[in-house]
Amino acid sequence: MLHVFACSGRFPSWEALQAYLSPAYTEDGDAVPSPFFLETGLTHYEPACIESALLASPAPLAELLDGMSYADSWLAQACADADAQGLLADTAVCVFAPNRLAHPQRSSLHYVGSYAYDGG
To answer: Which member of 3, 39, 46, 83 lies 3.0 to 4.6 Å from 95 by CB, making a disulfide possible if both were Cys?
Structure first.
């Protein structure tokens, strides 16, 4: 299962987006959950299975998500949902398995939806 999130105007830079998504680490090497982890209840963290995009200005989801993994199997449905919601965004986050989200709708980002995908 894939979860798609989007927003506009929230992150001034790539670094700010990554600070929201990625855990921090203490001097002892212990992970400190990121805001995104806490909001969504993310478990089974695999950083290579979270993809994000940041554009200079809001655009349709199809443009923002161009080039995301396995897009052939899920992008059309996500874009249809986003278009129905009137969504334009400059930031998108895609969370693929094995990452698990206990409550994606609690994210402070707009939750577009969850989609099955063909991971090859």
So the answer is: 3
